[in-house]
Design goal:
Number of strands: 22
Radius of gyration: 23 Å
Bound molecules: flavin-adenine dinucleotide
Helix content: 25-40%
Strand content: 15-25%
Distance between the termini: 35 Å
């Protein structure tokens, strides 16, 4: 490795290889999984990224891309014999094209940094993960990240027009176009959510939106999680399309209120935060329909915030809910799964039952309008038994999501965390398709190996490979 690192330093000016500095990179937001990389490369130019990739390809060295390391499924966890490729130095907004409402940015620009750069033009970039002050647009693409405003404005994939990519061999290529559609297969969509396994993003063209004329944020408290869940379904089935529709349960409300003092009703069992945006007339009309639905759903403590400071405070409680929950337990394990919206109330009741069975607390804070759950399982990692229980509890929640017609990830990706659940969600033939796609982009498998798509062997060992009419798929694989 020493001689490889020397050669790497010859093509990339910034390489870190001393252990104390490598420690900084040993984990992402999934801190239960840790690994030191052999070294970290911090290229500054596209040519340097190309040279790093060409060298790694020639020598068969694994490469794991890293943005800000806020990912929650271990996607940026390093490979022990590989290069961690940090895109941190790619942090410039290259061009803002107001006429076409697009911007060209480097992958290490933070999500919020894009909106900040166009704020004075009354434009913004819509997808807004709660981690937006830190996470990068490159990481957002690799995870196809969502956020509060994705209910109305879509995920990252719906807000990106084009990408410049580096292949494992070190070649530069482009996908997408500045317009709405481009000929050929939709590689742009394929690369979204590909978790750093198909190529390295080195430039992104994002769509910008004009700021709406009016924004209102409505807070509503409920005496039961069931009432709040049913109200979410009613808001959407009545044809309202809020910019955001979020829900928190009692534990999350109390933790957030203690942390940011947003004025949340501490005695409520659940609360909804609903953002309406558009023209003055449109928002006024939506607001009166929403009031009716809330009243019928048994809402109380209804507050409407229109001025920016009050709106920001109401959202701050929700956006700071993860760190707020971090203050009430030594550790928490953040799950991410989706369910059909009508299932919200009953799935939350089952999560409460699981919480009792495992003896671990759980706080629920989530994108209710998308049916995207984020149960935060509270535990103490100093107790290995609690860590094991938390992981099993999390696995049960994901299985429950699949049973109810949902998925094992809404926005945080699979990484190393949900490999086993991929075996439950997908059939062997579907997983084989994923492997074929991976091989098309990365024939020698050096990009982020071992992440996101489980091998069929692993699924067989896990005992979750689909068996149809007693016909065992891949009988040649050992079962344990
Ligand atoms: C407190 C908190 C709140 C969060 N809230 C949300 C939320 O509301 N919505 C949401 O979707 N997520 C959320 N996340 C998860 C996380 O912030 C997102 O997944 C984010 O997109 C990760 O970006 P990053 O720059 O940190 O990427 P990293 O964690 O560094 O990497 C994530 C993945 O992207 C790959 N990658 C990174 N850069 C590149 C590149 N240039 N080219 C190719 N591959 C690349 C990595 O290999 C890895 O697989 C939250 C995380 C935290 C800690």
């Amino acid at each position: 490795m020493d001689s490889f690192i020397q050669r790497l330093s010859g093509v990339c000016a910034h390489v870190v290889a001393d252990k104390p500095r490598l420690k900084v990179y040993e984990t992402d937001g999934l801190t239960a999984k840790k690994m030191l990389p052999a070294c970290v490369a911090l290229p500054e130019t596209v040519a340097e990224v190309q040279a790093v990739m060409a060298l790694c390809y020639a020598e068969g060295v694994p490469v794991v891309a890293r943005g800000a390391g806020t990912g929650l499924s271990g996607g940026a966890m390093p490979h022990p014999d590989g290069v961690l490729l940090s895109l941190a130095k790619f942090n410039r907004v290259l061009e803002v094209d107001v006429d076409n409402r697009i911007a060209r940015v480097e992958p290490g620009v933070t999500n919020l940094g894009i909106s900040d750069a166009v704020r004075n033009l009354d434009l913004y970039y819509a997808p807004d993960p709660s981690s937006q002050i830190a996470c990068t647009i490159g990481g957002n693409i690799a995870e196809n990240s969502g956020g509060v405003h994705c209910l109305k404005y879509g995920l990252t994939v719906n807000n990106v027009r084009a990408l410049k990519m580096i292949s494992p061999e070190g070649e530069l290529y482009e996908v997408g176009a500045s317009g709405l559609d481009s000929p050929g297969f939709d590689l742009l969509a394929l690369l979204h959510g590909s978790e750093g396994m198909l190529g390295i993003v080195v430039e992104v063209t994002v769509l910008l939106l004009p700021k709406p004329e009016t924004i209102s944020v409505i807070l509503a408290g409920f005496d039961s999680v069931q009432q709040a869940g049913e109200t979410v379904a009613n808001i959407l089935s009545e044809g309202l399309l809020p910019a955001g529709l979020e829900m928190m349960d009692k534990l999350a409300i109390e933790a957030a209120e203690d942390f940011v003092h947003a004025g949340y009703p501490r005695d409520a069992e659940a609360l909804l935060l609903c953002e309406l945006d558009g023209s003055n007339e449109d928002v006024a009309a939506q607001l009166s329909r929403l009031h009716k639905i809330l009243e019928e759903g048994g809402a109380r403590d209804v507050q409407v915030a229109t001025d920016e400071t009050r709106r920001a405070l109401l959202w701050q409680g929700r956006k700071a809910a993860f760190p707020a929950v971090g203050r009430i337990a030594p550790d928490y394990y953040c799950m991410d799964g989706t369910i059909p919206k009508r299932e919200l109330a009953s799935v939350l009741a089952e999560i409460t039952a699981l919480s009792k069975r495992y003896g671990l607390g759980v706080a629920n804070v989530f994108h209710a309008g998308d049916g995207n759950l984020h149960p935060l399982i509270l535990f103490d990692s100093n107790d290995p038994k609690q860590l094991e229980s938390a992981e099993q509890f999390g696995a049960d929640i994901l299985t429950l999501c699949i049973e109810r017609g949902g998925t094992i990830t809404g926005e945080h990706g699979v990484g190393v965390e949900k490999l086993d659940q991929m075996c439950i969600q997908f059939s062997a033939i579907e997983l084989a398709r994923f492997h074929s796609i991976k091989a098309c982009f990365d024939s020698t498998g050096i990009l982020n190996p071992g992440k996101a798509v489980p091998t069929l062997n692993r699924c067989a060992e896990f005992g979750a490979m689909h068996v149809h009419r007693g016909q065992l798929k891949h009988p040649e694989l050992e079962r344990f």
